[in-house]
């Protein structure tokens, strides 16, 4: 089966086309898992590669992400029974007081396209909400984003709260966003930092491999 | 009411009694102080600023602000000292405190004329180029320091204007700068919903001054004063105001309502973070054209030192035309012009700023339910805005297609402050403008990301 049209539709942001393609693939009886693994994921991975070599940037990744989701959302309901195939669970969100979420959205799509289950808490997420969700969902990774020097302080508070609730050892915390540096991540006791979405995916791969 | 009455100053002049009003009766110098006594009507805001408290209580008022049918019988005109120790009674000052630059104008109040203009860099810059970094530092215990540094910058400006004690000062600026200036907290600017404590305009007694109020979020008194100076508030048809600086403030005026928002255009427009970027200073490449090769021109025709925002935007328009840059923002190959490197990342950073402005304007247009072509007048001002080339703006699609009569204006916020200084507009009218302004938070709109993607496209106008 040739999955390259799906891949191509993502790389060239053809939202209508991908919907049609996926309909056709499903009608032909191709398993959603295969459509995801051989079509959607390689498509978004190619976008990630183009992003890394600076061919693509924010607008292209956002457009590709929309195309990816147009397809992904069609097969997602059909995938639920097959959860064991996913690589890990990630809770992601923009910290409290911060409403800039485009960077987080790009990281999210890259992680989903890499085979991770992502629970997105959105933007301006209260510190306690992160703790609550970590407690309930028991994710492998908690990914925190902040775009302002004035809100990044919440990352440190969240890590302290995790410690206090004895949840810190259950989850790896990764941080990112324009004002964040490796130095800052180390200072607040995060498990990792990445500069961009491609780096975030590699970071998660590395952290979870070490876990197994 | 007032129109039926005449000011005491005029009534006295008709009788041949002349009071020395250094500001020409504009209510800015406080020289025309007269005694009226207990019968006097309550003092207005200006009188409260310009007359010492004890004299106010005794019944002193300003002849130019006291409107009456006839001269009160109790009136006493105090003997005016011929040689006042303050020789600058006829001088007023307007100041626009920007994040990057502080601008000022010294104004002869009596002759309604600008004597001198000057600008200094905001010395807070050394603590960080954008307001949020400074808010962060203030939260970390550097508030007093930042406040003092700003005050020093203003003193420096006054020195350059050769006037340390104007009789009246009008101050405009963005909400964060005004908060530092007035000693108000800046903490809440650090997190959503970004609301400061300054709402209405504020009169200060020492030094006698008026500080414009703020609309909301990062939209402050500079936007109100800029709108006043733009003349757009008198337009019957929808009109658009853009102040393009480190932050971009955008206002759409429609049917007596004003819809405003701010977008963070990022430091790229200041040339920060770009391989060949510079501020708009002598030597900066400000124009780029292409006729059998790139043609550049620099500010002051000096030896080129790099590109400022207007040069970059011209360049992007040329590259789009030549097919070397796609609508998505992909630069086909990196190259040099006059020895200055142009990289893919440079273009991308500029694209984000351009996209933010487009998204903001388009959102206001959609929010108010009009078409871009219904905007009959668009005014762009600001440190970078006023240098841009309107044709290039259209070619890169920085503003939605169809907006009519786009003009560039310099220093509109400062000019609005001068209008108040010269009593061409009253503080009451300014409050009315402030109250009919609606502040909107762009990033909180549901379809923001979709809008932003659209805004990022470098689509030339037809």
Question: Short summary of the structure?
Answer:
By secondary structure, chain A is of the alpha/beta class. Helices cover 57% and strands 10% of the residues of chain A. In chain A, helix 1 packs antiparallel against helix 2.
Rg of chain A (CA only): 17 Å
Average pLDDT over all residues of chain A: 93
Give me the secondary-structure category of chain B.
alpha/beta
- The general outline of chain B is elongated
Largest sheet data of chain A: 5 strands, parallel
Helix share bin of chain B: 25-40%
First-residue to last-residue Cα separation of chain B: 53 Å
Q: What's the rounded overall pLDDT mean of chain B? A: 93
User: What is the largest interface, and how many residues per chain?
Assistant: A-B, 23 and 27 residues
Q: State the end-to-end distance of chain A.
A: 33 Å
Radius of gyration of chain B, rounded?
A: 24 Å
**Tally of distinct domains of chain A:** 2
Number of strands of chain A: 5
Q: How do the SSEs of chain A run, as a string of H and E?
A: HHHHEHEHEHEHEH
Number of helices of chain A: 9
What is the approximate shape of chain A?
Answer: globular
CATH third-tier fold name of the largest domain in chain A: Rossmann fold
Strand order across the biggest sheet of chain B? 7-6-5-8-10-9
State the helicity of chain A in percent bands: 55-70%
